[in-house]
Amino acid sequence: MNLLTAYFPLKNKVALVTGAARGIALHVACALSAAGAHLAILDERQQEESIIARLLGGKKDKVRFWQVDVSDNEAVQRVMAAVEAHFGRIDILVNSAGLDAGSASSRELAMQANVNGSILCSKHVAPAMERAGGGAIVNVLSLCAMDGGQQEAADRAVRAALRMNNAHAMRYAMQNIRVNAILPGVVRPPALAAAMRRQDDLTQVLADRAELQMLTARGSAADVAAAILYLASDAGRFVTGSELVIDAGPSHC
Fold first, then answer.
1. What are the C-alpha distances in Å from 184 to residues 44, 207, 212?
2. Which of 19, 47, 169, 247 would be a feasible disulfide site paired with 179, CB 3.0-4.6 Å?
């Protein structure tokens, strides 16, 4: 018996993952696929063939790629309609598209992708989820929302995203749509890692961070994917409005 499908049954569910052409989001997409979900992958980077090959090999009927800017309201609305038309339903949305907000020049773009993009995707996927009888939205946010990190712009953006997460949990509850947030710690997407390299030596930053960990194990994208599987599946059917921190403990030190 496949333990993924036994504990986190997603057979015949349709999962939509934004920013899934690489990084943590790609691992999340693979985990959702392994649990039986059909996949709609949204990303600005057009890498359809390579993504499908890496995820499912020859089973292209279970996954499809749409190129879209998640900060474009009309484009997002069109894509959500296209995904529902193609698969017949949408059950899961993982908002994981995001940009680095480390510099002043990138603040507006980061706010659009990290916050506005999640708002737009959630807004336009909700009607499809309601037609499917309910659904689950998981927002992948930065840990700087909890620890007030050095990146002031990113901090403000993610704090806004947390407020959005709580507001959406209340707003969509009557439609049987659960909304939760994941906040990875040392496990970082490429954009944030690049920003850290510009500020300091990444190896030293991660080493300093590891000294604060309560747990000795090193985190990976698989840890984030496992948490999202829980929140997206029926295993987490009684959880909404939560923020799950995955950082081995530093945010509690």
1. 22, 16, 15
2. 169
Q: Which residue has the tokens 């190129």?
A: 67
pTM: 0.79
Q: For residue range 160-200, list pLDDT tens digits in order.
A: 667 777 888 888 999 999 999 998 865 444 444 454 445 55
Q: What is the 3-state secondary structure (H, E, C) of the chain?
A: CCHHHHHCCCCCCEEEEECCCCHHHHHHHHHHHHCCCEEEEEECCCCHHHHHHHHHCCCHHHEEEEECCCCCHHHHHHHHHHHHHHHCCCCEEEECCCCCCCCHHHHHHHHHHHHHHHHHHHHHHHHHHHHCCCEEEEEECCCHHHHCCCCHHHHHHHHHHHHHHHHHHHHHHHHCEEEEEEEECCCCCHHHHHHHHHHCCHHHHHHHHHHCCCCCCCCCHHHHHHHHHHHHCHHHCCCCCCEEEECCCHHHC
